[in-house]
Amino acid sequence: MDFKLKIWRQKNAQAKGSFRTYPVSDVSPEMSFLEMIDYLNKQIIESGGEPITFEQDCREGICGSCGLYINGRPHGPMRRTTTCELHMREFSDGETIVIEPWRSKAFPVIKDLVVDRSSFERVMHAGGFISVDTGSAAEANSLPVSKHNSDKAFDAAACIGCGACVAACKNSSAVLFAAAKIAQYALIPQGKAEAKERVDRMVKQMDTEGFGYCSNTYGCEFDCPKGISVDFIALMNREFFSSKLCKQIPGKYTRKV
Amino acid sequence: MQKLDSKIPDGPLADKWKNYKAGLRLVSPANKKKIEIIVVGTGLAGSAAASSLGELGYKVKVFCFQDSPRRAHSVAAQGGINAAKNYRNDNDSVYRLFHDMIKGGDYRAREANVYRAAEVSNDVIDHFTALGVPFARDYGGTLDTRSFGGVQVSRTFYAKGQTGQQCLLGTYSSLNRQIAKGTVKMYPRRDMLDIVIIDGKTRGIITRNLLTGEIERHSAHAVVLATGGYGTVFYLSTLGLGSNASAAWSAFKKGAFFANPSFIQIHPTSIPVLNDYQCKLTLMSESLRNDGRVWVPKQKGDKRHPVEIPEDERDYYLERRYPAFGNLVPRDVASRAAKERCDAGYGVGDTGLSVYLDFKDAIAKQGEDKIRDKYGNLFEMYEKITGINPYRQPMRIYPAGHYTMGGLWVDYNLMTTIPGLFAIGESNFSDHGANRLGASSLMQCCGDGYFILPNTISDYLADDIRTGKIPEEDKEFEKAEKNVSDRIKRIMSVKGKQTASSFHKRLGKIMWDHCGMRRDAEGLKKGMELLKELEKEFWSDICIPGSDRELNQELEKALKVADFFEVGRLMCEDALQREESCGAHFREEHQTETGEAKRDDSKFAFVGAWEFQGQDARPKLHREELEFKYVELKERSYK
Asked: B193 and B136 in contact (C-beta within 8 Å)?
């Protein structure tokens, strides 16, 4: 297969980037998308150029490192598929493929297709945990958790933190990312004690980082490689309003906010 | 010469850890604040250790090469995590878990360490549950378990086929809590390139900031390596592409002994190679063998579509050869059996290098929904990669390089032969002998990080309460930094023609052919020669575009590949000295009449720990004799 690749090249965070076009030929349909870029990079290096920088690690859709904006969609045309799981057989021979980094104010470009997602880390630092020290856990089966809630918590926890939801959103909102973590803990008894403060802090941090608001277009769910449901955003909103109410009631907050 | 002292405590096996722990010294809360600890790597072991040490009040600095600690390759573990809870009333116990691990490791692991790993396994499950890790549950709300390769009880806790991810997000959450509290400082996008030793004690590391290229000095009172395994030495492996040996290797070159480097697990159920540009093999969890049946056609070179091959023309070779365990034989046995069939010409697929894993019977018996519930995400992953729907036709699988049982030699305190340098998780050698049983790596990583290291490192640090901050201006830091800078200058100045990946691919092929699933003396010697030649070519023809003062992924790759030549040679050296077959290490010269591994306990019941002797000198072998007081050494039979 032959393709024309239009790829975003940017030397560093300060430099002005631009698209460059690379023809690539003799691509096997069995190749994954990133293997195709490896193949192109080999040719670029051997002809004295600088290879295209992109992030990747596990190449099996679980680490969340890779994330390219392909033909106007995060992770490309296939649903529930990360960039590394995408294969060239999904494209048609001769096609022009446009490849960009995630575009969001909260994800500044570092180089070529690599962006800085440390804003996600800071949202997690704000409350993406249950405060329990090593050694203080009770026997695991002493606290039954309904299978229904546990399974739903798992569905929320399947988020890989890749940032596709933000890239898909016209407002660059991170609510699906935050909601997934908030919902995971709100659904199970272990997470209840801090639930009210958790949602408050994480939402505040999202705003601080420059992520936009949610306007319910559901683009995030559509493009999420793990199919995280927007239902969790509804759950987060409920938690958030309940948190606001609880703030007025003495004793409902365990810590000062 | 250093003497190997494993520091295994006296007393009965079941009381060793309890009694030993009671005698370990503590550091007072006021003093902990003055003590700094570096943790390298943020997989399960690293992030568990860092968060626990942070909770204790130490000043912790954590390093990883990824942009976030959540991306460490523990995330890709699929099947589960073992614990001796005996929730199924199937007569499981700490002793049985210990016994299974010792036997599964083909009697090449330390009894005391393995027993301790089994002992703390239950605490790990309790802790993860408290952290909100969504393990699978039964309708009554209690935790579910499943059985896993090589054992006869159901002790594996799981979260669909994403157990590693869910456990890692658990340790990541506890790490985040400490980062928010300020007890842990996170340094992402750093490659550790050297350790710094001052007056005989490990006092820091040298890192390269991957964004700016700056070479940085970081000091501490102790350093913990949680840097994973070196399975990417095969190029094609189930590991993440960034996984590497460099941190452990720099420790080896500074005097830390490297134990059993040739013990490397080849996982039986990976998706086979599909094209020439592939740089990664994707694992299909071993848990699939609970319901999938492995087979090849009875007729050589049978090119029919698998669903067209009738039942009586299929050879379910694992069930045939190992009736007691069938498809659930341990990984090393399953891998060699697959290779044997393929080498004999019965393999399937275009290359003839794969076998079928068939769910037809399980689907007929349990229904498609039940199978989807258990393995849905794995089936989906398989279909995405191959374009084949495994609900309709069998998967094709083949063995792939996976997990390294070998690693830095550590004593009972998890300390290497360099004082103040600890190694935990996959980066040490301690608990899996010559072969690891499924679902015991998550268990060991978390046990090391949460429950063992925080106790033993405090005992070591009790001597450091008056030391004060370690100055990064020390001449040892300067020397180490210069070494690292010189090496980078040297590699950048080659300006050759070939890419790091193309060297890595050739290196991997040499290792796979000469030091892979089956080894012999001649092949190993040949392998070492080929590695030397290729290494020479590398240092005269490696091409790294761009500069070292920026984000330069080619430089990162080249530095890792440069170390793999040396790692590969040590693996061959170790495989050559071990004139027996045990676990994953199979020497052609040492097999039974039926082609099973033939161990030699009279000569080789030891840990082979290698000491660096200089760049071009042969490393020196030290033996730590293994004593078995609680298990009887038997032929490992799964028939």
From this structure: no
Of B108, B155, B208, B331, which is the active-site residue? B331
B89 touching chain A per CB within 8 A: no
Of A62, A158, A184, the CB nearest to B76: A62
pTM of this prediction exceeds 0.90? yes
**What's the CATH code of the domain at A32?**
3.10.20.30
Which band of pLDDT confidence, cut at 50, 70 and 90, is reported for residue B151? confident
Roughly what angle, to the nearest 10 degrees, separates helices A33-46 and B500-514?
A: 120
Q: Quick one: CA torsion of B465, B468, B473, B476, rounded to 10 degrees?
A: -20
pLDDT in tens, B334-365: 999 999 999 999 999 988 999 999 999 999 99
Would you call A154 and B280 a contact, using CB atoms and an 8 Å cutoff? no
Q: What is the pLDDT of residues B566-586, one digit of tens each?
A: 999 999 999 999 999 999 999
Structural domain total, chain A: 2
> Residue B208: pLDDT band by 50, 70, 90 thresholds?
very high
Whether B217 sits among the annotated catalytic residues: the reply is no
Nearest to B570 by CA among B230, B244, B238, B254: B230
**Residue A256: inside a domain, yes or no?**
no
3-state helix, strand and coil shares in percent for chain A, rounded to the nearest 5 = 40, 10, 50
CB pairs under 8 A between A and B: 212
What pLDDT does residue A109 have? Answer: 98
Burial class (CB in 10 A: 0-12, 13-18, 19+), A44: middle
H-run or E-run covering A3? strand A3-9
* Structural domains of chain B, with CATH: 35-266+403-464 (3.50.50.60), 268-401 (3.90.700.10), 475-602 (1.20.58.100)
Q: Are residues A204 and A144 in the same domain?
A: yes
Whether the Cβ atoms of residue A45 and residue B499 lie closer than 8 Å to each other? yes
Instruction: Name the helix (H) or strand (E) containing A8.
Output: strand A3-9
CB atoms within 10 A of CB B59: 20
Contact flag B132-A188 (C-beta cutoff 8 Å): yes
The sign of the torsion formed by the CA atoms of A176, A177, A183, A186 equals negative
Cross-strand partners of B186: B62
Partner residue opposite B134 with nearest CB, options A61, A131, A154: A154
Q: Tell me the pLDDT of chain B averaged across its residues.
A: 96
Backbone φ and ψ of A183, nearest 5°: -65, -40
Q: Which of B123, B126, B279 sits opposite A38 (nearest CB)?
A: B279
Supply the range of the domain harboring residue A138.
118-247
**Do B180 and A110 make contact, defined as CB atoms within 8 angstroms?**
no
Q: Strands B620-625 and B606-611, how do they pair? A: antiparallel
Q: Are A106 and A124 in the same domain? A: no
The phi and psi torsions of B146 (rounded to 5 degrees) equal -140, 170
Q: Which of A63, A86, A111 is the last residue of a domain?
A: A111
Q: Which ipTM did the prediction report?
A: 0.97
Q: Which residues of B touch A47 (CB under 8 A)?
A: none
